[in-house]
Amino acid sequence: MRQIRIWTAIALLVACTAAGFAQTRADEKIFGEAKVFIFDKKWTAALAKLDELIEIQPRSPLFAQASFYRARCLAEQKGREREALSAFKTYLMMSAKGSGLDEEAEISVIDLSSALGKAGDRQALRDVEARLLHPNKNVRYYAAFSLSYVQDKNVSGKGVPILKSIIETEGSGELKDRARIALLRISPDSLRGVEDLRSNGGPRVLRIQILEGGIKNVDISIPWALAGLAFSAMPESEKAKIRNQGYDLDKIISEMAKSKSSILEIKDGGSTVRIWIE
Q: How distant, in Å, are the alpha carbons of 82, 99, 258 from that of 94?
């Protein structure tokens, strides 16, 4: 009798192991097919496969990854941004993710929320603001950079402390420059007190004004040490106008530095760009 019980237990164990193995193989097959569709950017087909896996295999070890890629497929389909945002949030609330996709999901939440905010949903921007306090440094930085594009200065200004900390603490020159440009987008005044940007005995401030139909549209005052960044921060359409006129910006800056009283004025139709140094 005892031997019968032992063999029965062994048989049950083997059966359970075989069933689990079969389930894993089925999961991997569906997930593999979905990833092929994702690679080919066939988002609808991929989404169908991922929905299949999530519905029939809720206990699959691939469930969390499938949830992430499902959110990504939604994000790639125009008009489904809100569904995608909700899906990424659902993924991030899972306790056993373990797939190394968390940071990418956080970045996607910021991108989607920023896009919705730009379309007029101010409430969506709160998801971006919340990530200014995220424990992941890359997520905090990305949230601050994204907020710098928001027209409402009360909102974009919330990222200023993070941007200033990048300039003061980071070693990467490129990252510092990106932070400076982001601060310029928010307000040139936000750069004050961050660094000693004055050149000893040299020009101190680069001024740029853009007028449309005689009305001042852009008025920027930039520390001279950031002259190159000032041009980077100019609207691309205005930079194109300067290039089309045949002006060499590097030469202009060099000549203006020698003669502080000179002013460059470029007119194109109803637009006027003025550049000088004080």
A: 19, 11, 61
In a domain, 197, yes or no: no
Of 100, 131, 162, at which residue does a domain stop?
100
Integer CA distances (angstroms), 140 to 51, 111, 158, 161, 169, in order:
31, 13, 12, 11, 14
* Number of domains the chain contains: 2
Rg value, the chain, Cα: 28
In tens digits, the chain (278 residues) has pLDDT values of 545 544 444 334 433 433 444 455 788 899 999 999 999 999 999 999 999 998 887 778 889 999 999 999 999 999 999 999 999 999 999 876 656 799 999 999 999 999 999 999 999 999 999 999 999 999 999 999 999 999 999 999 999 999 999 998 988 778 888 898 888 888 877 776 665 444 445 556 777 788 887 777 777 776 665 665 666 566 667 667 767 776 666 666 666 666 655 677 777 777 888 877 77
Strand 271-277 to 205-212 pairing: antiparallel
Of the residues 66, 100, 134, the one at which a domain ends: 100
Q: Is there a domain that residue 255 lies in? A: yes
Query: CATH code at 57?
Result: 1.25.40
| 195: in domain | no
Residue 192 lies in a domain: no
Contact 70, 50 (CB under 8 A): yes
pTM: 0.68
Q: Which domain holds residue 262?
A: 205-277
Short-list 177, 119, 179, 132, CA closest to 158: 132
Cα–Cα distance for residue pair 19/97, rounded to 1 Å: 24
